[in-house]
Amino acid sequence: xxxxxxxxxxxxxxxxxxxxxxxxxxxxxxxxxxxxxxxxxxxxxxxxxxxxxxxxxxxxxxxxxxxxxxxxxxxxxxxxxxxxxxxxxxxxxxxxxxxxxxxxxxxxxxxxxxxxxxxxxxxxxxxxxxxxxxxxxxxxxxxxxxxxxxxxxxxxxxxxxxxxxxxxxxxxxxxxxxxxxxxxxxxxxxxxxxxxxxxxxxxxxxxxxxxxxx
Amino acid sequence: xxxxxxxxxxxxxxxxxxxxxxxxxxxxxxxxxxxxxxxxxxxxxxxxxxxxxxxxxxxxxxxxxxxxxxxxxxxxxxxxxxxxxxxxxxxxxxxxxxxxxxxxxxxxxxxxxxxxxxxxxxxxxxxxxxxxxxxxxxxxxxxxxxxxxxxxxxxxxxxxxxxxxxxxxxxxxxxxxxxxxxxxxxxxxxxxxxxxxxxxxxxxxxxxxxxxxxxxxxxxxxxxxxxxxxxxxxxxxxxxxxxxxxxxxxxxxxxxxxxxxxxxxxxxxxxxxxxxxxxxxxxxxxxxxxxxxxxxxxxxxxxxxxxxxxxxxxxxxxxxxxxxxxxxxxxxxxxxxxxxxxxxxxxxxxxxxxxxxxxxxxxxxxxxxxxxxxxxxxxxxxxxxxxxxxxxxxxxxxxxxxxxxxxxxxxxxxxxxxxxxxxxxxxxxxxxxxxxxxxxxxxxxxx
Lengths: 214, 447
Known about the structure:
Chain A: It is found in: Endomembrane system. By secondary structure, chain A is α/β, with parallel strands linked by helices.
C-alpha cells in the first residue's frame, strides 16, 4: 500500500420523504448556500466534502437522493457498492421535516429497511430539519429522540435555512465513522472492508482504489 | 489545449464518416488523414469555433437553420386547413431549426401527435372539443378523489400504521404501493418547487392576477404555497391539475418525479390546460417508458447511450470504461428529463422541438407502426442540437457529471469535455420498436 498519507473516504446517503430538505441540508453543508426555491431532486445527485478531524483528513462522499420511493425501488445504482452489495458500506442520514409528522413515519420505514437490507451496525443519524419553523407550528421532538435512542442513532435538530445544527450532524457522522474505523483496526476483524470505509489514494485516477487493510 | 483536441476530434470524425465507417481497419488511414488535413483545417476550425464561442463536436458539423416563422407556417396550409404534403416539409423545417416562439402554441399539438398531420381544420376543431371534454372528465375524477381523501384520511392512517407494525415482513419500498393519494402528495410537493425559468418566456402567464392564481390553487386543493408570486402559484396549480389528470389517464405510470420537468415548459407555452394535457400525453407516449416502475425503459435508454458512445466516440467510451462508468448511470437524469436540467429554458424548447419533429416525421413515414427498417424522411435531425448545446449558457452539467467524479474522475476540464457531448442523448428517443442495430445504423447514416 502507498506510503503517502491515506485519504479516508466515507460514503453517506441522505434518505427521507420528499421536500423535507435533504438537498438543502447538503448544499448548506457543502457550499454554504440555501435556496427557498430548491428544485426537486431527480433520482440522486453526488457531492463531496473534505474535512479534517483530529488531524486526519477525511472525504465525505455524499449521495443526495430523491424522495420518491420509485427511485429506490429497484437496483439503486447510485448507492450500490462495487461488489453489488446494497447499502453495506454506507452511512445513512435520515431526514424528516419537524413540522410534518408523516415524514417521520417515513424515517421509521427507512430504518426498518436499512436494518434488514444493510449490515446490522450501519451508522444511522437522524436530522429533524426545518427547526426554524418550530415557532410557527407545534412539534414534539421527545418521541423522535427516544426512537433514535432505541435504534442506536443520534438525533439532531437542524435548519438548512439558518444553517443551524448542520455542521454538528456531519461532524458527528465523520467522527463516529473514524472512531469505528480505529476500533476495527484494533480488533483486526477479517470483515474490515465492510465497515463503511474505503481507503483511497489522494489521486483517484492513478490506480483503482485499494480496499483498506487488504 | 482543450480546443485543439476538439478540433482534432472533429476532423477525425469527419474523415471517418467520409471513409464510410468506423471499423478498426480504417483507423491507421484516418490517423494519417487527420495529420495531413489538420494543418489546413485547423486554422479554419479555430476561427469558426472562436467566433461562435463553441466547441467543435465530433458528431455534427451542421448549423442550426432559422426557426419556422409565422408566415412560413401559414403557407404550409391549404385552403381547408390541411398541411400540404402530409406535413413532411413542415417537419423538415422544424427538425432543422425549431419553431418561432410566437407560433409554438399552434405548432406543438401537431408535433406531439395531438392533431394528425393530414387533418383538416374542421376535424381538428372536433378533436379539440372531444379532447376538452375528456380532460374535464378526468379532472372531475381527480376532484372526487381529493374529496374522498379528505373524508377518509383517518382510515388511511390506520392502514399505514398496520403495515408498519407487521412483524418480520420487509417494508422494502414496494412500487406497487404507490396509489393515487401518494401521487397527489408528491405532485403537490413538486409543483410548488417547480423552477421559474419559464416566466420571462411567457409574459401573459407571468402577469396573472393574484385573485385568479388563488382561485386556481383552491380549485386543485393546493394550499402550501407560502408567499410565492401569483404567477408561480398559478403555474403550480396548473401543474397539479394536469399531472393528476395524467396519473389517472395512465395509472401504470401514475406520477414520477421528473415528469413535472417535462410538463412545465408545455404549460408555459399552452395557455389552456386541456391542450397542455394532450400535448403532455403526446410527449409521454415516448417518455413514459423512462418512468416505469421497473426502470426497464430507462435502463434500456442508458444502454443505448452507452452503445452510441462506444460507436461514435471511442475515446470518450474508453475514458468511461476506465472510470467503470460505461453503464452511463450518470446520464440517468439527463435522459429522464430530456436534458431539461442541463440546458436553459430556451435551449430546452429548441431541442425538444427538434426531437418531436423528428419523431413526428418517423410517425408520418412509418404510420406509427413497426417500420424500424425504413429511414426517416429527411437527413440529419441532430443539426439543431449542436448550436443548442454549444452556445454557452449550459446550466447545470456539473450536477450530472458529478456522477463521474463519484467514479473518480477528478479533472474538471474532462468533465466539460464529456458534458459537451451529451446532446446526442436525443438519439436515444427513437421508437422502442427499433432494434439497437437499427438505431446504430441510423446514427451512422444520419451523420
